[in-house]
Amino acid sequence: MPWKPVALNNLKKGDTVRLEGGATIRIRRVIGQRGSVLDVINDEGLPVEIRDTEAVVRLEDK
Asked: What's residue 62's pLDDT?
């Protein structure tokens, strides 16, 4: 299963993403987007801000 670059507006519930800093999170819920920041809840129930200045890749099924 390869990692592929993804735009913030294409992230959705259930996605597993790796952020530029190396952190890997699974998205439990997308709260919303404010300009260049996407607010999500991770699998541990914690809020996470993802900025469009970060390189974000998503784990693809294929």
From this structure: 66
45 half-sphere exposure, CB direction, 13 A CA radius: 0
Residue 8, SS3 per DSSP: helix
Chunked mean pLDDT (size 10), the chain, 62 residues = 93 96 94 96 97 93 74
CA distance 31 to 23: 19
Contact call for residues 18 and 57 (beta carbons, < 8 A): yes
Question: How far apart are alpha carbons 61 and 45 in whole angstroms?
Answer: 24
Terminal-to-terminal C-alpha distance of the chain: 6
Q: Report the C-alpha gap between 25 and 37 in whole angstroms.
A: 16
